[in-house]
Automatic annotation (TrEMBL):
Location of the Homogentisate 1,2-dioxygenase N-terminal domain: 5-278
Organism of origin: Loxostege sticticalis
Keyword annotations from UniProtKB, A to Z: Dioxygenase, Iron, Metal-binding, Oxidoreductase
Pathway where it operates: Amino-acid degradation; L-phenylalanine degradation; acetoacetate and fumarate from L-phenylalanine: step 4/6
Family: Belongs to the homogentisate dioxygenase family.
Chain ranges of the Homogentisate 1,2-dioxygenase C-terminal domain: 279-431
Major enzyme class: oxidoreductase
Protein name, entry field: Homogentisate 1,2-dioxygenase
Cofactor(s) it depends on: Fe cation
Pfam families, alphabetized: HgmA_C (PF04209), HgmA_N (PF20510)
EC number(s) reported in the record: 1.13.11.5
Region (Disordered): 1-32
Length: 439
């Protein structure tokens, strides 16, 4: 496949035209009486019409057929572990850790949609407040089908396998250590080359933003120009039985149509899918002493209406220099008024070298204590504090949410990956209390 082209920037007003149809984008207005090349104009609204200008998100799509040409939606039962049922299990405040989730074996063909499994979540898509954390476990490409969520934005974190994502806006390729965001209502199809696994943070409230930088200044963390949006690319194909799959109020529905929905010849707007390479993150950290809160590594945030409180933050733990003097350098012991779901894309995580593995996960719920295991504590309390490059070849991440999440039945039981012995990693932390002030 030829190398894909992208537009660079975050939250920009973009426009794109498939080069095979120059002039497809109407000039000077959104809805001409007749669009160039006989296209239909369709607006995709990502915020209320009346949202303040700095928050307002919408795009105009110029397409071969309007999306409305489809047969009625019917319930679809291909992903039986995709759910918003947060009451399936009794609440469980324990520290939870999952071994890597199983990818289906080659004798079962499972695509991205059928491979969606919900691990935990909270809230309600109907009142547009909440999140769901899913994993996708698949080995086959979507065929004659496209998916969209009517519930929330998907932040997709591939852990194994490259995702080739065809969207209405064009194509993107997303490899492990990159992420993609496909926002509410945007149709997409996922092609995979083999066994594929990753994590999804779905937010029901609103959209992801770059965090404010405050005293950091105008540059740093995830820089806007490193976000990439696809360029317009259309296919003009009649495909009887093409399936449009909608995730709607936590369930899947399918509607058939006889053509590809990837028929957008040109588009413009600021409501777009995008990808980001996590290796581009400009890491800022403590260079004198103490351990910064992990919010310093926020890539994207979906804010709530409370100042400074996120519905969910996407935070990474990238390779970086650790230089703090007279400091216990690993993550501190912690009880949080936020829920911390962590996953591992590559390598290992400094606070726990064993047990937390790529493709697995952990959840430290609201006010549940967590922190370094005994090995990490002992090593970090006694090590010589030289400048040290840490997390080399690794990438852990956290979905941190102000919501108190429930684990689904699949997450708690059916997946059979929950590690009942996780708590043991803290049980051997020694009592070091002594009469001597300098230990
Ligand atoms: O390891 C964790 O659970 C996440 C985490 C990281 C960090 O640097 C500080 C606090 C914290 O909870
Ligand atoms: Fe924490």
């Amino acid at each position: 496949m030829a190398e894909l082209k992208y537009l660079s920037g975050f939250g920009s007003e973009f426009s794109s035209e498939d080069p095979r149809k120059p002039g497809a984008l109407p000039e000077g207005q959104n809805s001409p009486q007749r669009c160039p090349y006989g296209l239909y104009a369709e607006q995709l609204s990502g915020t209320a019409f009346t949202a303040p200008r700095h928050d307002n998100k919408r795009s105009w799509l110029y397409r071969i057929r309007p999306s409305v040409i489809h047969k009625p939606f019917k319930k679809l039962d291909v992903a039986k572990h995709l759910t918003h049922k947060w009451d399936e299990q009794e609440p469980d405040p324990n520290q939870s850790r999952w071994l890597p989730f199983d990818i289906p074996s080659p004798d079962q063909k499972v695509d991205f949609v059928a491979g969606l499994h919900t691990v935990c979540g909270a809230g309600d898509a109907r009142s547009r407040h909440g999140i769901a954390i899913h994993v996708y476990l698949c080995n086959a490409s979507m065929d004659k089908s496209a998916f969209y969520s009517s519930d929330g934005d998907f932040l997709i974190v591939p852990q194994q396998g490259v995702l080739k994502i065809t969207t209405e806006f064009g194509k993107m390729e997303v490899a492990p250590n990159e992420i993609a965001v496909v926002q509410l209502g945007m149709r997409f199809a996922v092609h995979v080359d083999g066994p594929s696994r990753g994590y999804i943070l779905e937010v029901f409230d609103g959209h992801f933003k770059l965090p404010d930088l405050g005293p950091i200044g105008a540059n740093g963390l995830a820089n806007p120009r490193d976000f990439l949006t696809p360029v317009a690319h259309y296919e003009d194909v009649d495909l009887p039985g093409f399936k449009i799959i909608s995730k709607y109020q936590g369930s899947l529905f399918v509607a058939e149509q006889d053509h590809s929905p990837f028929d957008v010849v040109a588009w413009h707007g600021n409501y777009v899918p995008y990808k980001y390479d996590l290796s581009k993150f400009m890491v800022i950290n403590a260079v004198a002493y103490d351990h910064c809160d992990p919010s310093i590594f926020t890539v994207l945030t979906c804010p709530s209406t409370k100042p400074g409180v996120a519905i969910a933050d996407f935070v990474i733990f990238p390779p970086r220099w650790s230089v703090q003097e007279h400091t216990f350098r690993p993550p501190y012991y912690h009880r949080n008024c936020m829920s911390e779901f962590m996953g591992l894309i590559l390598g290992s995580y400094e606070a726990k070298e064993g047990g937390f593995l790529p493709g697995g996960a952990s959840l430290h719920s609201m006010m549940t204590p967590h922190g370094p295991d005994d090995k990490c504590f002992n090593a970090a309390s006694n090590e010589e504090l030289k400048p040290q490059k840490i997390a080399v070849g690794t990438q852990a991440f956290m979905f941190e949410s102000s919501l108190s999440m429930a684990i689904t039945k699949w997450g708690a039981e059916t997946c059979q990956k929950l590690d009942a012995k996780y708590y043991e990693c803290w049980q051997n932390l020694p009592k070091l209390f002594s009469d001597k002030i300098n230990v």
